[in-house]
Design brief:
Structural class: alpha+beta
Radius of gyration: 18 Å
Strand content: 15-25%
Order of helices and strands: EEEEHHEEHEEH
Shape: globular
Distance between the termini: 26 Å
Strand order of the largest sheet: 5-6-7-8
Number of strands: 8
Length: 177
Amino acid sequence: MSVGRNDPCPYGSGKKYKKCCGAVIALAPVEQRHCGTCTACCDGWVEGTIRGYEMKEGVPCHFRGDGCCTIYDERPQEPCRRFICGWLAKSSPFPDSFRPDRLGVMIVGTKWRNRPAYILRSAGRDPDEQLLTWMRSFSTQSGAPFFYEQKGERFGFGPPEFQHEMLMKLESGERLW
């Protein structure tokens, strides 16, 4: 179903589509960003082993200090250096306010059918409706689907073929991601 720019937004905001999810998102070029004091990626979702210490979901990294990584300069390639959050990524489409420690949600880049996709991971809170509205608009404009979790339940948003594929996964008992 196609939504006209002057039609009501299908997500129930009460606004016209062009003023809500159909709004053009003007993004300034992203300068080189740095983690600074953000340690969201170390706060308990990355899995792997670092210097003999197992990292798993829900358990912060053994080397996470107060607002820093205590082994940052010597951190291993896997999983640390390999990982770059969506906010930090070169040419990130996400505004400064989406820095994970400020947003409370980490945006993780992934792929769907060899195209960009994103996973919204809690970095202190589940994605709220304001963030989901922004992401829906971004997804509609860019074609990049996204996954998110709220209260332990997993969801996805994207183009019709993405929705169909995710429905098939759910019906066969597979996880969305």
